[in-house]
Amino acid sequence: MAARVLNVNVGVLGHIDSGKTALARALSTTGSTAAFDRAPQSRARGITLDLGFSCLRTALPPQMGPGPGELQFTLVDCPGHASLIRTIIGGAQIIDLMMLVIDVTKGMQTQSAECLVIGQIACQKMVVVLNKIDLLPEGKRQSAIEKMTKKMQKTLENTKFSGCPIVAVAAKPGGPEAPESENPLGVSELIEVLKSQAYLPSRDPSGHFLMAVDHCFSIKGQGTVMTGTILSGSVSLGDNVEIPALKVTKKVKSMQMFHTPVTYAMQGDRVGVCVTQFDPKLLERGLICTPDSLHTIHAAIISLKKIQYFRGALQTKAKFHITVGHETVMGRVMFFSPAPGNFNEEIQENVFDFEKDYLYQEEYLSKDSVSSEESKENDQAGEVQLPKQQWALLEFEKPVTCPKLCLVIGSKLDTDIHANTCRLAFHGVLLQGMEDKNYTETFLPKLKVYKQKHKEGQVERVMDDYSVIGRSLFKKETNIQIFVGLKVKLSTGEDGIIDGGFGQSGKFKIRIPDGLKPETKILLTAASKKKSKGGKGDTTKEDESSKSDSAQPVTISLIFKRYVFDTQKKMIQS
């Protein structure tokens, strides 16, 4: 029986020119078809444009189980160039362990910080590699490495990678132009650290087959090969797989893992799948899956968290670049939270409850955002109360194909790439996709997100013991009929019901079922007497009376809620 090979995917991430590709080359023993900047554009520009894959095989470390076997590290070399961040996000979702490559002469740079953020979202373990130590003068090298190590430890203090290993190397001493005979420094120590950090990632062959394809090419007389990483399930020779982007199903003719033919591959494996011929140009990258297992959606509900390094508010109606699975599209957001009384309720993970009411938010609520009125009311102590969970409705500019419960990242990729600022704004989980193109009519009315409305007016005068006339609650052109029957409250404590309009100027009649309190009547009668006295041509008196009147008018408060997606725009009072 062949010795078992355990595969661990290691992402090589970092700022442009930190030496990621050179490090992957120094570590690798077997390059895959996509490795080491093979693409002509990459070679011409001297930067990595796409995910490069290669592998390193070593003896199985003791923590990964007894018996003979090999540990295979699949190295995923991610581009460091700022405009290629969507490729990095795609890469991070298939990574078990991350290497953050830092140029020791420069320290943390903008994209190193963004890679760290992506790592925190998508990855469990990390090793920091301080590269290019050959550029440090030999006499001061050790102290410079120690200084940078301390700096990195401080940076990682408040992240989940606090205390992670930091290794100093020179992947390509002398730089890209140096002769190949120059031996890399520190790489064998790095391999030992990687072995010590390796763990058995949980792999599950059950469920639908789903693979992220990052390269596609044809082999004459054999078919078209798609290489990628299996995200879920498994695949065997002879299986049918669907390419949703092309709306076709193809049969698996042969498979290879790093140039070794195989008949079966499962979640976490890096594999090349050869299927019956199609034009490889049609599928640069994308997903392939068990037929009919993916959905194409026009909008989605996600649970989300703001990324702490993103400066600025996340506002409803704003547009973001939304990375869903392996696609990045523009989308508009609407944020909402639990109803104020449920801010502290434990929310079931990865499930969205359509039976509940949710509160519309102008922006994502965070410590630095302006607290909503509800938070203020909820909390007299002056500290803003934040909900345990918040959600967003995402509406995509073009449909995306993705699995359920996949990772979603929102970013502002149009920010100036030279600005020293994090462009990743939020991350979350896709809870519910909307496949119907007419989702605004068929689906959104089920989503019970409401806005709290609060209108204030004043009592103008008393009609009798059980009714008053109000003003300033509605505009002249408002159709008061739709408000008839709604409850209001007077500032003096009485409950009232809007009875109908009064005249043409937006005034209205309020019925007070339990009658006006005697002191309210005195207050209102005094106010209207002053008004009528002041009306006899004495303007100074009128000014004085309106001052004393406005000092304590009786106000009318109308509170109701309206569901954002209710086509009838009904006003609801609890």
TrEMBL record:
Function summary: Translation factor required for the incorporation of the rare amino acid selenocysteine encoded by UGA codons. Replaces the eRF1-eRF3-GTP ternary complex for the insertion of selenocysteine directed by the UGA codon. Insertion of selenocysteine at UGA codons is mediated by SECISBP2 and EEFSEC: SECISBP2 (1) specifically binds the SECIS sequence once the 80S ribosome encounters an in-frame UGA codon and (2) contacts the RPS27A/eS31 of the 40S ribosome before ribosome stalling.
Protein name in the entry: Selenocysteine-specific elongation factor
Skewed-composition ranges (Basic and acidic residues): 535-547
Catalysed reaction, written as an equation: GTP + H2O = GDP + phosphate + H(+)
GO biological process: selenocysteine incorporation
Cofactor requirement: Mg(2+); Mn(2+)
Origin organism lineage: Eukaryota, Metazoa, Chordata, Craniata, Vertebrata
Compartments, record wording: Cytoplasm; Nucleus
Swiss-Prot/TrEMBL keywords: Cytoplasm, GTP-binding, Hydrolase, Methylation, Nucleotide-binding, Nucleus, Phosphoprotein, Protein biosynthesis
Residues passing through the membrane, by range: none
GO molecular function terms attached to this record: GTP binding; GTPase activity; translation elongation factor activity
Pfam families per the UniProt record, alphabetical: eEFSec_4th (PF21131), euk_SelB_III (PF21208), GTP_EFTU (PF00009), GTP_EFTU_D2 (PF03144)
Record has Phosphoprotein as a keyword: yes
Gene Ontology cellular-component terms listed: cytoplasm; nucleus
Chain positions covered by the region annotation Disordered: 527-551
PROSITE patterns in the record: G_TR_2 (PS51722)
Taxonomy, superkingdom: Eukaryota
Tr-type G domain: residues covered: 5-202
InterPro entries the UniProt entry points to: eEFSec_C, eEFSec_III, EF-Tu_GTPase, EFTu-like_2, P-loop_NTPase, T_Tr_GTP-bd_dom, Transl_B-barrel_sf
